[in-house]
Amino acid sequence: MIDQQYPSKLLERAVAEMAKLPGIGRKTALRLVLHLLRQDSAAVHALGESLVRLRDEVKYCHRCHNISDTELCDICANPLRDASTLCVVENIRSVLSIESTGQFRGLYHVLGGVISPMDGVGPADLELASLVERVAEGEVKEIILALSPTMEGDTTNFYIARRLAAHPEVRLTVLARGVSIGDELEYTDEVTLGRSIVGRVELNAR
Amino acid sequence: MIDQQYPSKLLERAVAEMAKLPGIGRKTALRLVLHLLRQDSAAVHALGESLVRLRDEVKYCHRCHNISDTELCDICANPLRDASTLCVVENIRSVLSIESTGQFRGLYHVLGGVISPMDGVGPADLELASLVERVAEGEVKEIILALSPTMEGDTTNFYIARRLAAHPEVRLTVLARGVSIGDELEYTDEVTLGRSIVGRVELNAR
After folding, report:
1. What torsion, rounded to 10 degrees, do the Cα atoms A76, A79, A80, A81 define?
2. Is A153 strand, coil or helix?
3. A105 Cβ partners below 8 Å, 6+ apart?
4. Alpha carbon B73 to chain centroid distance?
5. Which residues contact A193 (CB under 8 A, 6 or more apart)?
6. How far apart are CA B72 and CA B138, in angstroms?
7. Residues 6 or more apart whose Cβ sits within 8 Å of residue B119
8. What's the rounded Cα separation, in Å, for the pair B54 and B56?
9. Interface subset of B 43-102, CB within 8 angstroms of A
10. Which of A66, B45, B62, B178 is the most exposed place for a label (fewest CB within 10 A)?
């Protein structure tokens, strides 16, 4: 059905647009579109409008660059959060993941990616200057670098460390690497297992 | 991330609308929506518009009830198609599947479902009266019943046969049931395998 001739140009266009979404092939796109065809017109309008409105009206917090409906996001605006700890993340999804753990009460700084020369992403494309500015304000005591455990993530970590060389009073930390909770040891990759041995911690059971 | 508090109502609404699509959970919906957020505004408008336009402007062929941009669909309007053979199918997807085989040159009749008392679908909810009318016009010589090989499909087949009792001159056929091409015999279910034995055909190799 890949080079399928559709009986309707409207159908064809809707399927083509839907199939542009990541992970949605033409077959899935057709299934979704035919599903929408069976829904109320109002429901389809609601979907279309919600996507367009999000795209056109979304704001980003001017402090942490997280997605927000207001100039200052709910997290930055919350006086109960610890403004002395910044968690530096790649994107909004990382913020949502960390928030869902309930283990972090500090503030975020969303870079918008990691340094990746291969993809043409340099330091200037990321919210790095604004990070340095936030640190220069003097309130930040610790920066948790929570980027992807990839070469690009590590490169970005080193770059940030260098940019903040003038602030030795700010503690720089990274997420602990180790065996996943619930994972079988034999299925853990060697690099992670190796790091978890080097970075072993005291058993606090006694 | 299921009961996630999103940092933006716009984001929350877009994710909620996207997650209403069949087979799209909230995690996938979030991934798709954040992808759209990184696209041009024009691309997002194109997606939204194509869905809304399809839903609001779509037509159905007044003969076969297939989706169409015109009153009479391209298949029904094609003089090269054999108007004496009707293939009765459940939905548009069946039409696309059969068309993609390139093995059928007749016309279609899209019922819009099968009789299913459990789902509250009775004969009056389907395009059955219009099928009888088409047959009464006298041009149809064979009806291929290409419904799902389910209890509901079989029920609908029997119902159609009864409704067409006044037209014994019209040949009623169903799709051949049997072992799938390329399938291992041991993985074929017993009912299908049984039917393929009962309905065995002459080997035309000699």
Report:
1. 30
2. helix
3. A80, A81, A82, A85
4. 16
5. A179, A185
6. 19
7. none
8. 6
9. 43-59, 66-69, 73-75, 91-93, 95-97, 99-100
10. B62
Of the candidates A196, A64, A36, the one whose C-alpha atom is nearest the C-alpha of residue A130 is: A64
Interface predicted TM-score (ipTM) of this complex, two decimals: 0.77
Q: What percent of chain A has pLDDT over 70?
A: 96
Superfamily per CATH, domain B9-57: RecR Domain 1 (1.10.8.420)
> What pLDDT was estimated at residue A1?
40
Render pLDDT for B25-76 as a digit per residue (tens, 0 to 9).
998 999 999 999 989 999 999 999 999 999 999 899 999 999 998 899 999 9
Strands (E), chain B: 59-60, 67-68, 82-89, 106-110, 142-145, 171-174
Q: Which of B145, B142, B22 is nearest to B85 (CA)?
A: B142
Residue with tokens 């929570």: A146
Task: Determine contact, residues B100/B120, Cβ cutoff 8 Å.
Answer: no
Extents of the domains making up chain A: 9-57, 67-202
Q: Select from B7, B53, B57 the Cβ nearest to the Cβ of A67.
A: B7
Tell me the whole-structure pTM to 2 decimals. Answer: 0.75
Distance (Å, whole) CA B104 – CA B16: 41
| CATH number of the structural domain B67-202 | 3.40.1360.10
Residue B53 burial (10 A CB sphere; 0-12, 13-18, 19+): middle
Classify A52 in phi/psi space as left (phi over 0), alpha (psi -120 to 50) or beta. alpha
Report chain B residues whose CB lies below 8 A from the CB of A46: 17
The residues, any chain, with a CB within 8 Å of residue B128's CB and separated by 6 or more, are B111, B159, B160, B163
Angle at B88 between CA B83 and CA B94, to 5 degrees: 110
Instruction: Identify whether the C-beta of residue B2 lies closer than 8 Å to the C-beta of residue B9.
Output: no
Q: Which two tokens stand for residue A176?
A: 């602990």
Name the token pair of A82: 């610890």
CB contact (8 A) between residue B10 and residue A66: no
The burial class, CB within 10 Å (0-12 / 13-18 / 19+), for B155 is middle
Query: Tokens 């340094």 identify what position?
Result: A115
For strands B67-68 and B82-89, give the pairing.
unpaired
**A9-57 and A67-202 share one fold:** no
Closest-CA residue of chain A to B21: A32
